[in-house]
Every structure is written in structure tokens, then in C-alpha cells.
Amino acid sequence: MIPIDIIQSTAESLMDKAAIEIPEDYHNGLKSAAKVETGSLSGYVIKAMLDNYDAAKEDRCAMCGDTGTPRWYVKMGNETTIEGGPIALEAALRRATANSTHRVPLRPNRVHPLWRTDHNNNVGIGAPEIEYGYEPGGEWIDLITVHKGGLFGTDYRMLFPSDGIEGIKRFYLDTLVAFGKRGLACQPAIIGIGLGGCKDTCMVLGKRAACLRVVGSKNPDPEIAELEAEFKELGNSIGMGAMGFVGKSMVIDCHIEVGYCHTGGMQMSMHAFCLSSRRAVARIYADGRVEYRTDPDWFTDYQRRETVDWPATVETALSEAPGH
Amino acid sequence: MEIREVELSTTPDASAIADLKLGDIVYLNGLLYTAREGVYTRALEKKANLPLDLPTESAANFHCSPAATIREDGSFDMGAVTATASFRFAKWLPEWMEKTGARLIIGKGGMSSAAYKEYFVPNGAVYLSTVGYGTGALLGRGIEKVEAVHWHEELGIAQAMWIIRCKRMGPFIVASDLQGNCLFERENAKIAKNLDKVYEGTRPAVLKRFGETDDREDELIG
User: Fold this and answer.
1) Where are the beta strands (DSSP E) in A129-276?
2) Closest residue of chain B to A99, computed from CA coordinates
3) How do residues A98-119 score in pLDDT, each as one tens digit?
4) pTM, entire model
């Protein structure tokens, strides 16, 4: 059983790490962009951002004043139980969010959509979001916090099979250019694209593609991986860079995730995880061990499965069957 | 291109503003205040009295919600500060600038050149953009002291009016000048020349949406 006090203390340190420390994969991606950027203004901007990461770490200060909308992705092995159960888990994550907002401090961004009520702690109706995933085998829990910015760079469109790759490219460029102007998307960014699913799951897939995969990762489908590379190149050939100034760095990496969709549709969502790509991850084991990392490792073969049964489950069931 | 760095007071005189050129990097000294939709609504629509003497104390309006907290003893902890996108405040800015004499509007993404010509230039004001976006920690180093926070009980911490004494706070980038030129529109115009080529091999969606434009030079902001 996973001790609840360790869940809360780990969640609090994850909140700090996400807000303060740029993940290494994004940091390296931006350093590579700095080397090839020839635009004088956009090059200046990237250099200032690299300095800013150092300042944030030195001063233990949030890297950006807009600390996004903190949320949680929780993943568990199949044998995991939590002290106090799922209700205690959710309470611990809400407490960690509120405490860290006050302590770091983070900007209390979350308000009521109509009455603009601000609890000054990033907690309220439906906030923070807590989403779940499961993996076959093991007794552990992964806590992943993502503090994504919330206003610009994201869009959804219902495309159809006849739109084809040309239509996907059009919507991709439209979204990059529209939100790239004046740098509203805070590019260069990790671009996540969701294809398929239903409207809601398409948005979820694209957001997870942006926030839960590291720079340099590839979709296991080689043709989709080729599209990812092609789209990264296409985004960086627009002629636009940081802050919408002339330049060549819009996309640090492009990640595409797919889900089966309605036979008549080809849903598409776009998400930009910005110059402050805030995410932090830890795995907690039943014996209280905590391992921190920056790769959420969300998209496992199990998460992308397309069969009715999962072969590993079948194998385990067979091996445990009497007389096997 | 060499990038010029200048230091500027938050109560700048006319010649200091006239000297600024698009793309200059600015570091600010003096008092600045945060004001965005919450403050504008309360001051302009609900007619609340301003809690400080503007523009005597400060002519610098920062479109910012800081990552900050008010401690139990009433003192402040302010870490990172960065701007929010300014175009959404066009509805209030002309009246605000007239009322407060603001000469530096500081935010994210700038306004349209039409807005600069219509009410920035006549007020002798220019727009400074934050850099990045998101040099929150660097800007945080420029906070000498948080002098006060006003209206936080009515508006919450994010929308409150924070009064910040800054010492060489920056970098900011000059995004408009006294001729009403717009740095972002200048850059957009250069980029637009390449867009037809980039879009080759793409196709518009088979199902259109109302209100869309295919004019890729459109600035898209109000």
C-alpha cells in the first residue's frame, strides 16, 4: 500500500520542480534551436530565455510569472492500493496544489469562469484536473504534474477523410501562424497533435502528445514518426521564430498521437507546450521509495493498445491457471 | 544587427520616449503598477478611486499578474513576473491612458498600429513588450521592493493592483514608437511574403467555419 503522506509530500516537491526547473529535454531542444537561429531579434529572445532558466534555478523562483493551470496525471500499476483510497489521493493532490501555490509562490490563475472568484490557491470546481492511467503489473504510482499555459496555441477542427494529409497540414500551419503572430503561443514550443478519437478525446490526445512526451521521442508507427519529422521541419520553415519575429524556430518537436475515430471523420487538435514547458514526474513505491524523473513515459505500448485483450494479461492469466 | 540597450524611468520625460526605437531593449527604474481587466473594470466602469497618484508616482502600466502571495503578517512574497496579452484590453486602454497619463504600456504581444496612432501617440506613450515570453525569473530580479497591493480582496491576487519598485528591471523590448509604428506588424509583413510558398501542397478544409479569414496578412487582433 502506498503511504498517503508520501504522496502529498512528493506532490508538493513536484509542484516546485515543475514551476522552477525546465525539463532537460526541452532545455537541450532550445539550446539546439539557439545554435541555428539567425534572426537577430528572435535569437536574442532565445538567449534571454536560456538565461531565465538559469535565473529561476539559482533563485528558486518560478521561471515564468504565468505559472499555468496546474493539473495531475496519475498512473498506477495493476496491483497498486493507496492508503485511504482514491478519495484520499485526490485530497492530497488538491492540498499539494494549494500549498505550493502559496509557498513557491505560483500565480493563483484559477478562477470561476463567470464570477471570476479566485480562491488564491489554484483549486476550485474541476481544478486541478486529475486524470488516470493504469499499467499491467506492479505496485507503484506515478505522479505527473503539468503546468501548461492556458490561453493561446490550441485549436480543434473536425476534418474528414477527404481532407487528407494536405488538410491536416493546412490546419497545422493555420494554427501555428495564427497563434505564432506576436508570439502569443510563446514559441518555440513542443507541438502536440491529436488525430482521431471523438472530439473530447482528440483534444486529450493532442494535449498529452504535447505535455507527456519528451523532445526527441517518436511515435512507434514509423509512418507517423516520419510525419512528425516532416511537420517539425515544415513549422520551422515558416520564417517565424520566437515572439513572432523573423526567424526559423517555431517547433522544438512535433508529437502526433492517434485514436480510432468515426469512420466518416478525421478529428484534429493542436496544442503548443510553450517556452516554459513545465512538467515533473515521480514514481512512489509501496516501501516509500520515491524516484524523480522528467519523462512522464505515459504513452506505453499498453496505452496505445488496439486489441481487445492485452497479451501480457492473457499470459499472466494462463500461467496462474490451475494445471498450467 | 546590433541590439541597443537603454535604461528608462517609469516616469519618463518626452525626450526619453522620443529617443526609443523599435527593437531597443529597455531596463526600467522606478515605480510601476499592474493593471488589467479587473483594475480597468473597477476603476473605469465602477468608478472606484485610484489608490495612488497617477501619473506623478508612475506612468508605467504593466499588464501582469505576478506569481505572488500575501503572507499572514501582511508582507509580500513576489517571485516571477511576466506579462499577459494586451490586445484584450483595447476596450479600456484609451480611457485609462487619458485618466492616468500612462506613457509606458507594458505587456505581451503589443497592440495594433491603428491603436498606437489613435491613442498612444496623442498621449506621448509607447508600448514595451516583455521578452520570451516568460523571462519571469529575470524580471523578478528587477523587483527592489513590493510597495503595496490594492484591491486584492475585491479582485483576487491575480487581478489586484500591485505597486512594484523596480531597479533595472528587464529586459523589455520597444514595440511601438511615437510615429505609431508597430514592431510586430513590421515583422509580420516580412514573414507574410514567404507564406504562400510554405502553404504549397496544403488544402483548405472541406467544411468551412463562419467568420474565418484566409488573408494570411490579417493581424487577427481587434
Assistant:
1) 130-135, 140-148, 155-159, 189-196, 251-259, 266-273
2) B69
3) 999 999 999 999 999 999 999 9
4) 0.93
